[in-house]
Amino acid sequence: MKNHYILLLAALALCFASCEDNTPFDTQSPDDAPLILIPYESTSGTITMTQSNPETLCADSVVVTPSAYTTVNWYLDGQLVFTGTKLDKCFPSGQYDLVIEAVTQAGKKTSRTGTFIANPYLTDPYSAAPAGGRHMVPNIPTAIEGVNLAAVTAFELTSDVEGMNVVQTITPTSATDTRLEFVLPEMADGAYYVFLKDEAGKRYGANVLNVHNSSVVLSGFEVFKPGEEWTISGVKLENVASVTIDETVITELTATATSVTFTAPAAEPGNHTVSMKNADGSDVLFATAEGLVAQATTFVSAETTIWSGSVTINWEVDPPVTAKVTKEAMANVPAGATISIYFDMAGDTYHQIQVTTDWWSMNLMEKKDVHEGDNPITFTYTAEGKAKVEEEGSMLVVGFGATITSVTYK
Questions:
Q1: What residue ranges define each of the domains in the chain, with the CATH number in brackets?
Q2: What pLDDT sits at residue 26?
């Protein structure tokens, strides 16, 4: 009996020891759906990562689950550039579309999308692509603008983000500190990465250049006013013979290499279709958010446009980047009119728009946080505000995190 009692005590001791075991156990499974825990998903659904200069690694990392069974792939402009949870690599200066993809051994995937910005040194030659992108054609004198460009003796066009596959090397015909002039040789259509080179052969990233061998409309087609002169801009437009708005075909027009001008037909407010044909019957393509298309959408507004373009406002730099509406453009806007600011979201930090005068002495519209569904934002143009604009010379749309596309009134 005594031996049985001793055995019982030993068993109880083992039981308690087992219950107090704090050794962790793995709950991950190769069949789990992947999750990206860090970076967090922002309210806008996109992220922004930054490389401070061409020689400093991006400090951002990714945390995923199930980590033991998941591979993380990094894509810039659709090209796979790195695999791993920490981006242990430097990239040429420029701005890129970013995709971080988590894929499990079972083939299940999830991703984060956003923007990757690789900043140059302040003294580096650099050229930022305009908001609508660079679009050029072979055998026509053209130029890119930037900073510190006088040091550039040549530049390369490559097919890849990292500049390994050089397609063409070009010598500028003129180089100043802010402008490179050159002629593109015969090249296939496509998007090419620009790498500026100095006399020592050092290379500097400078974003993308799009080459077109066919007629392409780039801007000015989105909105029109019936009965008024309408100019649509692009490349290789000198052979345009007709413009069609819905079923109305217009042949009385003036076509140059970079523009087509004609009188807009009668049309009701709302969406309409626009297309163009060259004299040989070929379609002119339109550069849209969906890519190059033969037929685009245009819009007739009951409002009067006083400014249009594409300016990504930024009041965090000196001088600030603003959308400026001159007093001449504002002259016909009466006091009491409703002014509308149309915009696209830009970046992933914060998004604010304010309207002020040329000397920033009077806010015509106080600072507003803006979101996707707020487009357009409006304010009432007061008599006091009109007097200030006439005195100071312009109205400024300022702020951060938004690309201003048009300003109208009614």
A1: 35-118 (2.60.40), 135-211 (2.60.40), 216-300 (2.60.40.10), 304-409 (2.60.120)
A2: 52
